[in-house]
Design goal:
This protein is mostly helical. Helix content is 69%, strand content 0%.
C-alpha cells in the first residue's frame, strides 16, 4: 500500500479539535523550520470558521507574541500573515485588540525584512477598518507619519506605502489631531505628486481627513498645497479627483482657502467636473466627485468674486440640478449651490 504523501512545508495536522492545540505546541520547538511548518498549517487551518473560533476563543492568540519577536524574519512575517487571517473575522479583531500584541507589532514597522513590514501593514490596515481598531491605532499615528519621512524608492515597497497611507487615513477620519501635530499635512503634500496612482489616491484621501479640522484647513493653505490639489482635479483616476475635490471642499470653507482657489481659477474646473457627461455605468464612481465639487462651489459662492463668476454660469448648474433627478443627493447639492449663488440680502 503506497504511503500517504505529505507536504514537507507543512506540519502534520491532528484530527478534530486536537489540531489547533497541537500546532501551537509545535510553535514552541527550537527549530525554525518546525515553527514555519506549524505556522503554514495554522494558516491553512484557520480558513475553517470552526478552527478560527477555536484559535481565538482558546486563548492561543496571546501565544503569538513570542513569534513576533522571533529572530527569523520568515517566522515574523508568517506570524503576521496568520494574524491577518484571524482578524478577517470580528472575533479575531476583538481578540487582537484585547491582547498585548500591538506593541510588538508596531516595533515590526521598522523590521529589516520588507515582507515582514508589508505583513504588519496589512494587519494594521485591516484592524483600522473598525472604529475600535482605528482608535487603538491612534497612538501609532506619529510613528506612521515618521515612516513617511523615509525615502522609499524601491518599486517593491509601493504596497507597503499604500497600506501605510490607507491606515493613516482611516485613523485620521476618527481623529485628525495626532497627524496634524506630527507635520502630517506637509509630509502628505509630497505624496500628492507621486508617480503611483495608488499612492496619490491614498495620500489625497488622508489629506481630506486632515482638512476637516480648522487647523488642517489652515495648514493646507500655508503649505501651498492648493495648486497641487487643483491639478489633481484633472487626474486620470476618478478617486484621486474625488479625494482632491474633498480637500478643496473643506479648505474653501475658510477665507484663505476661498481666496487661494479663486486666484487659481478653480471655478471653471469644478464646473466642468459637475457638468461633464459620463456613461451611466460610471455615475456611481463619480458621485463623490460631483457632490464634493458642488459643495466647493457653494462655499466659493459666499465670496463676492466667486458669486460673480458663478452667476455667469448659473444655467450650467440649473441643468445639472434638473439632470440629476435620478440621484437625489446630487440634486440637493446642486439646488443648495443655486440657492447660495442667487441669494440676495
Amino acid at each position: 500500500m503506497p504511503g500517504v504523501r505529505t507536504d514537507p512545508s507543512r506540519a502534520p495536522v491532528a484530527f478534530g479539535r486536537r489540531a489547533v492545540p497541537q500546532l501551537f505546541e509545535q510553535l514552541q520547538q527550537p527549530e525554525t523550520d518546525g515553527r514555519l511548518r506549524a505556522l503554514a498549517s495554522l494558516c491553512d487551518l484557520v480558513h475553517d470558521p470552526e478552527r478560527l473560533q477555536q484559535t481565538v476563543n482558546g486563548g492561543f492568540v496571546e501565544q503569538l507574541k513570542v513569534l513576533l519577536q522571533d529572530e527569523d524574519p520568515s517566522v515574523r512575517a508568517r506570524t503576521c500573515e496568520l494574524l491577518h487571517l484571524l482578524i478577517n473575522h470580528s472575533s479575531g479583531r476583538q481578540a487582537l485588540l484585547s491582547s498585548s500584541l500591538l506593541p510588538p507589532l508596531s516595533q515590526l514597522l521598522d523590521d529589516s525584512s520588507s515582507s515582514c513590514r508589508t505583513s504588519v501593514h496589512r494587519v494594521l490596515n485591516r484592524l483600522a477598518l473598525l472604529p475600535a481598531g482605528a482608535e487603538a491605532l491612534l497612538v501609532l499615528v506619529p510613528k506612521l507619519i515618521l515612516k513617511l519621512r523615509e525615502e522609499q524608492e524601491e518599486q517593491e515597497v509601493e504596497e507597503e506605502e499604500v497600506l501605510l497611507l490607507s491606515t493613516l487615513s482611516r485613523c485620521s477620519r476618527l481623529d485628525a489631531l495626532p497627524a496634524l501635530a506630527s507635520d502630517g499635512v506637509s509630509l502628505l503634500g509630497h505624496k500628492l505628486s507621486h508617480h503611483s496612482t495608488n499612492i496619490r489616491r491614498e495620500a489625497a484621501a488622508a489629506m481630506m481627513a486632515l482638512s476637516v479640522p480648522e487647523d488642517g484647513k489652515q495648514q493646507v493653505c500655508e503649505e501651498g498645497l492648493l495648486p497641487v490639489l487643483v491639478g489633481l482635479l484633472q487626474d486620470e483616476d476618478v478617486e484621486v479627483q474625488a479625494n482632491a475635490a474633498g480637500v478643496i471642499m473643506y479648505t474653501v470653507i475658510i477665507t484663505a482657502g476661498k481666496q487661494q482657489c479663486l486666484d487659481l481659477d478653480v471655478v471653471p474646473v469644478l464646473l466642468n467636473l459637475v457638468t461633464k457627461k459620463e456613461e451611466e455605468e460610471d455615475e456611481k464612481e463619480r458621485k463623490a466627485l460631483i457632490i464634493y465639487s458642488l459643495r466647493a462651489l457653494t462655499s466659493l459662492a459666499e465670496a463676492p468674486d466667486g458669486r460673480r463668476l458663478l452667476l455667469q454660469q448659473l444655467p450650467l448648474l440649473v441643468r445639472r440640478s434638473e439632470a440629476a433627478e435620478k440621484d437625489q443627493d446630487i440634486r440637493r447639492a446642486a439646488q443648495t449651490a443655486i440657492r447660495v449663488i442667487t441669494w440676495t440680502p
